[in-house]
Design goal:
This protein folds into two domains: 107 residues, Rossmann fold (3-Layer(aba) Sandwich); 245 residues, no CATH class. It has 17 helices and seven strands. The radius of gyration is 29 Å and the shape is globular. Keywords: Cell membrane, Membrane, NAD, Oxidoreductase, Porphyrin biosynthesis, Transmembrane, Transmembrane helix.
């Protein structure tokens, strides 16, 4: 059985919660508890309490809190513990101490250390719905909560009141009361079964008719301007490289969509095999990738996955590095093309080897990040110079320091948009739009592959998939070096 959780609803007036940690997670857990009961009995212990959490505490003077290290005595008269620190070892010790006293523990983003989960909760008056994905995908639970909050009418509270009154008016045993309530609510169930079906069919029919009409109308209109012979002539004038880039874009997006990384590196090594000039390779990739990185980055921002301070330290130096890398590539690509090809092939091979290390590395404890600005500059520089590598360089470095993947991926994705934009503007200023057919091929090929790749996502184990991409990149790089030397 995949899910053995047993959902229960606690009467919060009778229990006391201890939260250990005063950062973002501590703030989030405190707000979650207070949303269920503003008078919740909470105790907070943290070496340092954030400014935002201090504001919450000032508005809720009934919450007991101390700014100091945790002690064993803090578990006295506690019913539930929430470990809200980034220190995995400490969280393990805290769980051991709490479990010895019969206290259940929840550790944020660490399912193995959880005796219970705090699910996403829908509050609609007397109606309360708790959603859990067994610790696998909190994002999906949050999306379901948002959907239900919009779908369930605000007056459901009145409906529950009316049904309660109706229930109390019924005579007899529990069975007869349930039968009366089922009969009273059966009309709602029948309406919901019948109406949406006819409505959906009608909308589908209307859409099909509209689509056929628009296709016919546009086709007839175009035929008055462009004849079939002229259309054939235009197709024959399309450069062969467009169709090659169509295949490259399709292949790269299949890799990136199914695995989660490798679009830039896959494009770069593939295009180098076909002899595309180096500035054109990187310029085309960045222009094509700018759209997807923009949508991805700002989606992460909307969902609260971005650390603004880290974003600033990555984006600003990263943009400077991207511009520098683009200018250097343009100079080397024009003056010393064979040397640049060799340097780039060695670089992509190193990235391939790094991907293997990423796939094989084990989870490590959180460490302090030093020289974030230098990391951003290096990531931007090599991304522009090599046509890819921002993710393998910056994301892997931050994850290797034990940072939470949610905020690393979100922040790096949004920063990537600004890095890609800076590189694209630089390449555009030097190259113009002569390589539009390459960009168009990458975009169209990637668009076709995107839904197929999305279906493949998760089918192949992540570690095996990354290693497969790494070996592919290494083989392509070695082939290029073999041709040169």
């Amino acid at each position: 059985m995949d899910n053995t959780l047993f959902p229960i609803f606690l009467k919060t007036e009778t229990f006391r919660f201890l939260i250990v940690g005063g950062g973002y997670v501590g703030l989030e857990k405190t707000e979650t508890l207070l949303r269920q009961n503003p008078a919740m009995n909470i105790k907070i212990i943290a070496i340092e309490i954030s400014e935002k959490l201090h504001k919450i505490l000032s508005k809720n003077p009934h919450i007991e809190w101390e700014e100091r290290a945790f002690e064993k005595e803090d578990l006295q008269n506690i019913n539930f513990v929430i470990a809200a620190t980034d220190d995995t070892k400490f969280n393990q010790e805290l769980k051991h101490l709490a479990n010895e006293k019969g206290i259940l523990v929840n550790a944020a983003d660490q399912p193995a250390l959880c005796d219970f989960y705090l699910g996403s909760i829908v509050n609609k008056g007397y109606l309360k719905i708790a959603i859990s994905t067994n610790g696998k995908s909190p994002v999906l639970a949050r999306r379901l909560r948002e959907y239900l909050e919009k779908s369930i009418p605000k007056n459901v509270h009145e409906t529950i009141e009316n049904l309660n009154t109706y229930r109390n008016q019924q005579q007899g045993d529990l069975k007869s009361k349930l039968e009366a309530l089922n009969k009273a609510t059966s009309l709602l169930s029948n309406d919901n079964k019948e109406k949406p079906k006819s409505r959906v069919n009608y909308k589908r029919f209307a859409f099909d008719i509209t689509f056929i009409f628009m296709a016919t109308f546009i086709g007839y209109g175009l035929s008055s301007f462009i004849t079939i012979e002229e259309a054939k002539s235009y197709l024959q004038d399309i450069p062969t490289i467009f169709f090659i880039m169509l295949a490259v874009g399709f292949f790269a997006q299949m890799v990136d969509g199914a695995v989660g990384l490798g679009y830039g590196i896959t494009c770069t090594t593939s295009m180098m095999l076909f002899g595309v000039s180096l500035p054109t390779i990187s310029g085309s990739i960045h222009i094509a990738e700018m759209f997807s990185s923009g949508i991805s980055g700002f989606s992460h921002y909307k969902f609260g996955n971005v650390n603004k301070k880290l974003l600033l330290w990555l984006a600003v130096p990263g943009c400077i590095g991207a511009i520098s890398g683009a200018i250097l590539l343009i100079y080397l690509g024009n003056e010393y093309e064979s040397i640049a090809y060799g340097v780039l092939a060695i670089y992509t091979m190193i990235i391939g080897i790094r991907l293997i290390f990423i796939a094989l590395q084990k989870k490590i404890l959180k460490k302090k990040i030093k020289h974030t600005g230098i990391l951003g500059f290096a990531g931007g520089f090599f991304d522009a110079f090599g046509g890819g590598g921002w993710g393998p360089i910056v994301t892997s470095t931050l994850l290797s320091k034990g940072r939470r993947s949610k905020y690393v991926v979100g922040t790096v994705s949004l920063a990537e948009f600004f890095i890609t934009l800076s590189a694209s503007i630089t390449f555009f200023a030097y190259l113009g739009v002569k390589h539009w057919y390459i960009v168009a091929g990458l975009i169209i090929g990637g668009t076709i592959a995107a839904p197929i790749a999305a279906r493949l996502a998760g089918k192949l184990p992540q570690r095996i998939a990354i290693i497969a991409v790494a070996f592919l990149v290494i083989i392509f790089s070695l082939r290029i070096l073999y041709k040169l030397f």
